[in-house]
Amino acid sequence: MTNTTGVIDPSTKDPHEMFVGWAPAPAVDRRFLLGALPLGLLAAGGASWKLAGKLNDPGAGAWLTGATHDVTGALVTHPYPMIRVTDPQAPFGMRTVLLVAVGKCTSSLTFGDMEAKPVTASGVLIQRKERRMLEVPPFAEEWLTPASAGMPVAAVKPPIQSLGGATLAGQIMDSKCFFGVMRPGRGKTHKACASLCIRGGIPPSFWARTKDGRESVLLLTDAAGGPMPMDILPFVADPVEAKGEIVRVGDLLQFRVDPAAIRRI
Fold this sequence. Notes:
The protein has 265 residues and is of the alpha+beta class. Helices cover 18% and strands 38% of the residues.
């Protein structure tokens, strides 16, 4: 007799082939899953490997939180807080160590009357290749002490050499994350973090890659060599082109740019 009610008669269906949430899976489903699962895992692993191969190398940055490091040199606060350490083995006889506060509030750092004097700073070292940065507490009495060592004039007022005008394509980043606190510390996924860091006084850097694949990172300042204004925030972490002047200050390269000379590409 034909069923005209629209309801499936259980007697006409093999109960072992039906899916019931609280019952064991039918044999046909178990066989399918056992065969499909290894293939699915292989496909997902292959896709992940291929995607990872297209990602940019995060670089050799390191955040050495396991120890406290002492840095002795001349304290300078313009255009950004830093300590210049005399080092005959380093390029140009000195090494610049940028100073940043714990978190994103570097603009709140206090220095007392230590400006342009020999000091010893204690903090956590952040480094990326030859670049150095020291993360310190916000209050000077917690990390900054006078040093008895004499400082050559060049440590306070290093030689300045213009290397000429340049138009560079790359990205604006916050130096702290890029040097090693975050990996990777650039790109769209890092835009919000980098913007907050720069807004909080962390020095911005301009990252560019030369045609032969070499990485170039320059400290970003305004056209006069002062701290960069917040006008750059909309461009942070975006592909941009900037026109300015490359200036060597001691061992540090600055990219001096008028914010109006930055454009997206």
